[in-house]
Design brief:
294 residues; mainly alpha; two-stranded antiparallel ribbon; 9 helices; 71% helix
C-alpha cells in the first residue's frame, strides 16, 4: 500500500479501537488518490476549454450540461451505501469541470475580478467547514458515513475546485506568473504543506484540505501549460489531446483500483452519527449473510 503524503490518525489516543467497522463513502488517502486528483483537476481545466472552445458552447450552456450530469452522478453517489471508485471519481471530474466553468462564467461573462472571486470562494469554503464542524464535530474524511456529512463533503469539494481555479488564474494571468512558473509555485506550496505536516506538527485535517485546495491550481496550471498555444506560453498540445490523455490516465487508475480495491477504507463505528450505527450494523449483517450464502 503506498504511503499517502497526508495520512490520518483519526482516532484519539485515549479512545479504544472499536470492534465494529463499516465501509467509508470516500477513498483511502493514498498516492493513488493524489495522482487521480491532479489528473482530474487538469481535465477540469482542459475539458471546460474544450466545451467552450472546440465545441463552441457558451459558458452558460456548458454549465447547464455539466451541471445536469453532475447532479445525476451525485444522486447515484449519495444513494449507494459504500465507496465505488468509478462513481466517486466521475463525480470529482465533473465537479472539476464545473468549478472551472463557474469561475470562468463569473470572470469572463460577468466581469467579476479574479481577486474577488478568489475571496468569495475562500469565504464560502470557510463557511462550509465551520457549519460542517459545528454540526458534526469533525472534518475528517474518514467518517463520511451519513447523508449530511457527505453533503458537506461534496460542497467543500466544489468550493475547493472553484477556489483553486480562481487562485490559479489570479497568479498565472492577473499577476503575470505564466503557466510554467505557476506550476512550480503551487508544487512548492504543496511541498511546504507536506513538510509542515511531517516535521512541524501541522494537523492532519488542515494539511489534507490545504493540499486538496492547492492541487486544483497545480492541475489547472499543468493543463494550461500543455494545452495552450506556444504564443500564449503553453506547449500547444490543444485541449482535445490533453483532455483525452488525462481522461485515459484517470480511467486506467480507476480500473486498477476497482479491481484491487486498494483504496477502500473502513470507518470506525464510534465516529458514525448515532442514528447511523444501527443501519451500519444491519448493512454489515446483510453482507455477512450474503457471504455465507456464497
Amino acid at each position: 500500500m503506498p504511503t499517502p503524503p497526508f495520512p490520518y490518525t483519526p482516532s484519539s489516543p485515549t479512545t479504544p479501537a472499536p470492534s465494529r467497522r463499516v465501509l467509508n463513502k470516500v477513498p483511502e488517502i493514498t498516492a493513488y488518490f493524489w495522482i487521480i486528483k491532479v489528473l482530474a483537476t487538469t481535465v477540469g481545466e482542459t475539458f471546460a476549454d474544450f466545451l467552450t472552445g472546440t465545441w463552441g458552447m457558451t459558458l452558460n450552456i456548458a454549465g447547464l450540461v455539466v451541471g445536469a450530469l453532475l447532479v445525476a452522478v451525485l444522486a447515484v453517489q449519495l444513494r449507494i451505501r459504500r465507496y465505488l471508485a468509478p462513481v466517486y471519481w466521475l463525480a470529482v471530474v465533473l465537479i472539476s469541470v464545473m468549478g472551472t466553468l463557474v469561475t470562468d462564467n463569473l470572470v469572463d461573462d460577468h466581469g467579476v475580478p479574479l481577486a474577488l472571486t478568489t475571496t468569495v470562494f475562500a469565504v464560502a469554503l470557510t463557511v462550509t467547514f465551520v457549519a460542517w464542524y459545528r454540526l458534526e464535530r469533525t472534518l475528517s474524511i474518514h467518517s463520511i458515513t451519513s447523508a449530511r456529512r457527505e453533503g458537506f463533503y461534496w460542497a467543500a469539494i466544489l468550493f475547493t475546485f472553484a477556489l483553486g481555479t480562481a487562485a490559479g488564474d489570479l497568479l498565472a494571468e492577473t499577476l503575470g506568473l505564466g503557466y510554467g512558473l505557476s506550476v512550480v509555485v503551487f508544487a512548492a506550496a504543496i511541498g511546504l504543506v507536506a513538510l509542515a505536516y511531517r516535521r512541524l506538527g501541522l494537523g492532519a485535517v488542515v494539511a489534507f484540505w490545504a493540499a486538496y485546495v492547492l492541487t486544483r491550481p497545480l492541475g489547472a496550471s499543468i493543463g494550461d501549460l500543455l494545452s495552450q498555444s506556444r504564443a500564449d506560453g503553453g506547449l500547444g498540445l490543444g485541449t482535445t489531446g490533453t483532455s483525452i490523455l488525462f481522461l485515459a490516465a484517470i480511467a486506467a487508475v480507476v480500473v486498477y483500483l476497482t479491481v484491487t480495491r486498494r483504496d477502500v477504507e473502513e470507518a470506525a463505528a464510534d465516529r458514525l452519527p448515532a442514528l447511523d450505527v444501527a443501519a451500519a450494523q444491519e448493512l454489515e449483517a446483510g453482507d455477512d449473510a450474503a457471504a455465507t450464502v456464497r
